[in-house]
Amino acid sequence: MKKLYFLLPFVLLACKSNNSAVSDTSPKLNSQPVEIAYQVEQSNVSDFLKYLSSDELEGRETGTKGIEKAAEFLEKFLKKNNVKPYFKSYRDTLTNFKSPAFNIVGVIEGNDPELKKEFVVLSAHYDHIGVDKKKKEDVINNGANDDASGVTAVAEMAKYFSETKSNKRSILIVFFAGEEKGLLGSKSLVEKLKVQNFNLYVQLNIEMVGVPMKGDYLAYITGFDKSNMAEKINEYTGKKTIGFLPKEAEYKLFYRSDNYSFYEAFKKPCQSISTFDFENFEFYHHPSDEFKVMDVPHMTSFIQEFLPAVTQIANSKTQEITMKN
Fold first, then answer.
1. Percent of the chain whose predicted confidence (pLDDT) is above 70
2. CA Rg, the chain, in Å?
3. Are 241 and 18 in contact (CB under 8 A)?
4. At what angle do helices 296-315 and 42-52 cross, to 10 degrees?
5. What is the pLDDT of residues 219-270, one digit of tens each?
6. For position 14, what pLDDT does the model report?
7. Would the pTM of this model clear 0.70, i.e. be above it?
8. Residue ranges covered by each domain of the chain
9. Residue closest to 110 by CA, chosen among 172, 195, 36
10. Torsions phi, psi of 124, nearest 5?
């Protein structure tokens, strides 16, 4: 997550005296939630996350050999799961970074002749902050929660759609580089998509979901009041999946991740989903953000609970998720 490290020490102090649990604002639930038979395998979640946050990738800083290895890993995953490249290859070169750097972009074409012209973007950033040479012991910032966890969730969603072929709308799978450098990957990509007259419906960006949050909801959404996305997701799952986190609004997290680049360009519902609640994880931008502190059963349940929502988002006859005035 971009630039939050400037605020975090003050936020954590504030959290000791202010309960940052999700508020009781409850979107209306649907009596007939979407049902799916597909089951997410915990071992797949674990294996994917473990490698992406391993020391071998040296913290995945944009422009380094470590993130190059991560890019190769993600390309192989998409190819293995029959997700086609959106461009000529999976690699989308950043236009705003001096060293070679790439977003990894795949597409799962929709199966409806008309709705496939509309796109749902599922995204997360695969870069992190790399190696801290000032440290004396553990120098690698592995970024397991930030944001290997989000990449893992999006990868599992891509696998689900590629296997079930259950999407009427087309799905764009994006793993961003350069997020930690100032949302560079998403800024670069939206410029290209705008030129193509890309027909965006919504973007769901997954950011830091490696540990469960406190409160009655599974996760929160950034920019809660900007659209009806939270309400619709809860209708689709039939659960209290998404809520409002006061700290998110206070620190304007809507503007701090790759959803904002898409929102700024398209003015469509583009929001991030997270379980980082400022109290449940103390290793933000820290070498101890490692696989061993991730809650893999929670992540597996998180992905499983979101599948009915992303399914309905990809299949509703009309664009049910809309911006609010």
1. 90
2. 18
3. no
4. 100
5. 999 999 999 999 999 999 999 999 999 999 999 999 999 999 999 999 999 9
6. 36
7. yes
8. 4-13+35-217+256-315
9. 172
10. -165, 160
According to DSSP, the β-strands at 91-93 and 102-108 are antiparallel
Q: What's residue 10's pLDDT?
A: 33
Tell the burial category of 304 from Cβ atoms under 10 Å away from its Cβ (0-12, 13-18, 19+): middle
- Model confidence band, residue 284 (pLDDT cutoffs 50, 70, 90): very high
Amino acid at 171: I
β-strand pairing of 219-221 with 270-274: antiparallel
Rounded Cα distance, 201 and 12, in Å: 36
- Cα–Cα dist 57/290, whole Å: 12
The identity of residue 30, as a single letter, is N
pLDDT in tens, 7-62: 443 333 333 334 445 544 455 654 588 899 999 999 999 999 999 999 999 999 99
Q: Are 16 and 10 in contact (CB under 8 A)?
A: no
In single-letter form, the type of residue at position 49 comes to L
Distances (CA, A) of 116 to 49, 68, 85, 169, 205: 31, 32, 16, 4, 20
CATH superfamily of 4-13+35-217+256-315: Zn peptidases (3.40.630.10)
Strands (E), 180-235: 200-206, 219-221
Amino acid at 288: S
